[in-house]
Specification:
The protein is an all-alpha fold. The chain folds into two domains: 82 residues, Orthogonal Bundle (Hydrophobic Seed Protein), CATH 1.10.110.30; 166 residues, Orthogonal Bundle (Hypothetical protein af1432), CATH 1.10.3210. It contains 17 helices and four strands. The protein has a two-stranded antiparallel ribbon. A two-stranded parallel sheet has the order 3-4.
Length: 344
């Protein structure tokens, strides 16, 4: 019977096992076992499993565009074990994208496969590099694809290429076992570099501001969950301030703490922001395990600021709008004393 998404299914009992297996996605998934335990392998799945090759079974692979995403996710999950995509399958993926199949992917499915790739693999970068190789990345995540070939200063970024750096940061988040919002913010934090005028390369002044509307567009289009979106926006806006936190004046430091959620009821958002900035620092060639003192510094700064409480301010006779103003003033003063003491 005809389905609404451009392909046909047939549940007839006349369909043979071989015909059924032929419509599977990959040869390693197109094997069966009979009642006697014998392996039925008409398409060479066992040989591909032994050679660690991900190969499409037949041209019917192209009937479902979600397979572009699913194969990339599957590869990311097993790349650490040495699996690779067959050349002819790579060619078919490119043909599918050129035929417009990637344009038919619905946002929710793109995000779901992306989320799973980010969380299931120790090297999520493989997923995005595979999508780039087929041309699908430019179709479903153009903001990310725009980072390819954009240079950065080699003294800060030995890997130079902005897309490479971004995906190294994502891999760092996976390596540390960080939560999904951290991995998403690592993925999106440098989108602004993709729109830096070429005459400004390799500098990327104002890329934080330029990145904010791109993060919003990415998250809105793919229906990214709000906790991921909010953290990505915060990290995009302030990751450079986190990197140079020890250089900030006490008032500027207090503003940074506030924007990153240091004074919320829980410290989850704040910790996630710091973790994402750590991944940014370690998403660089040869610096994957570098020291990053900004995290401990900002944790300590938060502790200092929290020694000032509303109860203390009210005991001193302040009320109404004066309370928040006094809290801000006293926290800034406390941070100033702490900074002076730590540099004495």
């Amino acid at each position: 019977m005809q389905q609404p998404f451009g392909f046909v299914t047939d549940a007839s009992p006349d369909v043979t096992l071989e015909e059924d297996l032929r419509r599977r996605d990959l040869t390693v998934n197109a094997m069966a076992q009979d009642d006697d335990g014998r392996i039925i392998d008409p398409y060479g799945g066992r040989a591909d499993l032994e050679s660690k090759t991900l190969r499409h079974v037949s041209e019917s692979f192209a009937e479902d565009p979600v397979r572009i995403l699913r194969l990339a996710r599957f590869h990311a999950r097993y790349a650490e074990r040495g699996f690779a995509v067959a050349d002819e399958t790579q060619a078919l993926l490119k043909q599918m994208v050129q035929a417009g199949e990637a344009d038919a992917l619905v946002a929710e499915r793109v995000w779901k496969e992306t989320e799973r790739a980010l969380m299931e693999s120790s090297r999520p970068s493989v997923f995005f590099f595979d999508l780039e190789a087929s041309g699908a990345l430019a179709r479903v995540m153009p903001e990310l694809a725009a980072l390819r070939g954009v240079p950065q200063r080699a003294d800060y970024h030995p890997e130079v290429d902005t897309l490479v750096h971004t995906l190294m940061a994502v891999d760092a988040a996976a390596r540390h076992g960080f939560a999904l919002p951290v991995r998403v913010s690592a993925l999106l934090h440098d989108l602004g570099k993709g729109v830096t005028p070429q005459d400004e390369w390799p500098s990327h002044r104002l890329h934080e501001e330029r990145g904010l509307p791109l993060v919003t567009a990415f998250c809105d289009r793919l229906r990214v969950p709000n906790p991921c979106r909010d953290l990505a926006l915060a990290v995009t806006r302030d990751h450079l301030n986190v990197h140079r936190a020890r250089e900030l004046r006490s008032g500027t430091l207090l503003g940074l703490l506030d924007r990153l959620g240091a004074f919320r009821k829980t410290d989850e958002f704040y910790e996630n922001a710091l973790q994402s900035c750590l991944c940014d620092a370690r998403g660089r060639l040869g610096l994957e395990h570098c020291d990053y003192p900004a995290v401990d510094y900002l944790r300590a700064a938060r502790g200092v600021a929290l020694t000032v409480t509303a109860a203390e301010v009210m005991r001193d006779g302040h009320a109404g709008a004066q309370i928040s103003e006094q809290i801000r003033l006293r926290r800034e003063q406390a941070l100033g004393r702490w900074k002076s003491a730590s540099t004495a």
